[in-house]
Amino acid sequence: MQESLCFPIVQEKTLPYLERMFMSQGKPIFFKKNDVIFDYWDEIKSIYYLSKGCCLYLANTVKGNERALSVILPGSSFGEFASVMCEPVNARVEAIENSEVIALPAQLVRERLRCGSENWTDFFKFVYRRQNNFCMVMSYCSEVNVPQRFALFLQSYAKRKSSSPEGGWHICDISITMDRLGEIISANRVTTSAMLNFLGKEDMVRKLKNGGLQFRDILIQNDFIKNELVNSKWCSLKTKKRQPLQTTAKENQIYY
After folding, report:
1. Do 159 and 98 reside in the same domain of the chain?
2. Cβ atoms within 10 A of the Cβ of 69, count?
3. pTM for this entry
């Protein structure tokens, strides 16, 4: 396993100057739960910013299996590279709860960047860092077990929310189905359910009535993930191996 345990499954916040552009010049659009914001091979002409709700970013593997790449929380943007570079997007974003998205015309962003009012270098560093991060997710899925992947997902969520644990417990208020959670941590429904039940008996995770989760702070600490979660008692859960997402060939690249 790599030394750094940065598991960027919860999407980072957007660049500050992009956020200002969204707030001043963007157009709000409302989506209901399960609505698709954009789909595979759409030629999107806008960059999107999530202001309310929660969305899921998905892509297909080379074998045609859909794979969840990230959870998008308010404050994150998406679709930057595909829209600015006029490339069709090889991914799908759907709302997993009622959401408000602000759309900003890509042409406006291109004009601002090209006239030098904003920095192209910062923009592309941001976009390519995200693409590399998703590739890291795929490599981690083949190197760590299911409880570790789940703990790393919760770790990234806690970092993104920047909230302090109360009494040693964090709250993950994303209402997400068992199937979706399984997609995120690359496990089937049976394994995901067994893992949650197991961690529940160990008093590491508690299910909330709203569909979210409460989890102990120790569960997301690097030493615990690297050492305790590789112990045989945690690894007794059988996982269904999935093919990693290939992003080397042009037709399989993911544009955000």
Report:
1. no
2. 25
3. 0.77
